[in-house]
């Protein structure tokens, strides 16, 4: 039986003294040499793409949970999964603290337990975990098995982590979550928070296993892709300098549908001499929009942020097939590190959200949903925000659930008093008449809003679940939480 570990604030401070690095932060902190992060990425206000508090302190400031951190293991169908439980110094409510599972990314390495956002700062218990085969760089804790990048095993793992967070199953030492923290966990008030591609895993687990997750009350999804075309950033993306790179072949509404993104790939090309500065991979796909047969200023060049699964780069099914159909690549010239048309067609369908929403009325009929997004997405560039649109339509019209676009302004102002009328206050179950105007439903993403609006979203959903208040708009916070002054244990 694996040893149960307790990391208190005292130990965190000790580690800070001994190793010069925080144990928890915006992104996992490496305790060994990590791959260098390109300078162009650092400073974009997002702690992602392998950045840590060591490589990019501007995007990943060192932070500590204010409460107690404990790690343990649960068993998921024969695989030992490392789980971290972070409890606040003081619970949010007199009765205890709601529990929120923070899902890990499926197409990029997290480097450890997810610590962003810090939900202990708003009085909630935060549960994170390591996918099979992954290791926490700070503590050396690792999960068994091999990672399948959001495949069937990953979905079962997330299911079991949620069940553990809900008090339905114990850890490997037969301890339930209630015995792992001095704060009383409200295990009937469980939420799931996901950022970026982790949303695909969450929708899958709700669709396949929602009937065994009765304690899950709400889902907060922040800027989550939905289909392979968007996950691969083929409709447009934000480059390393923060500039929007738009694919002129994507046009709303012609290119949009609730289930797919329709793009033309007949002019796809392959730049074989290109070497990616981030990964060292050779070659990249592009759309030869000016027809000159070479990459030039008028072309749409695919982002380097291509999902990597099983050691291979994966473009969308349609683009991958087009590379072969147009003879941009042949089977004899096909790069060994690029998924083939057969592999893309095999692996992408399970890793998409449309088609799953229709299962939710049966599997999770009472789930409440909040979709969180800024005016400028962290990676997507299309003005109509097709990923948010597909998720809203899926949750609202296929699943027939309560859905809100961004938190109530009152909750944002409770954490960010300077938030004014430029911050949205969208009643639940409403959407713009024209999704080209979705920007008015988004929050300004500059400065501290990037980190505080997600906290406001979880605060609101936790309070709504606690008080069973699902009005379309609140206008005021339901509960005022006063974080205690941090005291060492």
Account of the protein in words:
By secondary structure, this protein is of the alpha/beta class. It folds into two domains: 5-25 and 63-226 and 355-467, Alpha/Beta hydrolase fold, catalytic domain (Rossmann fold), CATH 3.40.50; 231-349, no CATH class. It has helices spanning 9-19, 152-165, 198-209, 228-231, 317-325, 341-347, 360-363, 386-398, 409-415, 449-467, and strands at 5-7, 68-76, 79-87, 97-102, 125-129, 185-195, 216-222, 236-238, 244-246, 268-275, 282-287, 300-301, 308-309, 312-313, 368-372, 402-405. The strands form four sheets. A nine-stranded mixed sheet has the order 1-2-3-5-4-6-7-15-16, with helices on both faces. A three-stranded antiparallel sheet has the order 10-11-12, with helices on one face. A two-stranded antiparallel ribbon has the order 8-9. The radius of gyration is 22 Å and the shape is globular.
Task: Give a quick rundown of the structure.
Helix content is 20%, strand content 17%. It has 489 residues and is an alpha/beta fold.
Relevant terms:
489 residues, Rossmann fold, nine-stranded mixed beta sheet, three-stranded antiparallel beta sheet, 10 helices
Largest sheet: 9 strands, mixed
Strand order of the largest sheet: 1-2-3-5-4-6-7-15-16
What integer is the average pLDDT? 89
General shape: globular
Point out poorly predicted stretches. 1-39
CATH homologous superfamily name of the largest domain?
Alpha/Beta hydrolase fold, catalytic domain
CATH class of the largest domain: Alpha Beta
Helix and strand string, N-terminal first? EHEEEEHEHEHEEEEEEEHHHEHEHH
CATH architectural label of the largest domain = 3-Layer(aba) Sandwich
**From the helix content, strand content and strand pairing, which structural class follows?**
alpha/beta
Number of helices: 10
Work out the strand percent: 15-25%
Per DSSP E runs of 2 or more residues, the count of β-strands stands at: 16
What is the share of helical residues? Answer: 10-25%
Euclidean distance between termini CA atoms: 28 Å
Which assembly state applies to the chains in this document? single chain
CATH topology of the largest domain: Rossmann fold
Total separate domains: 2
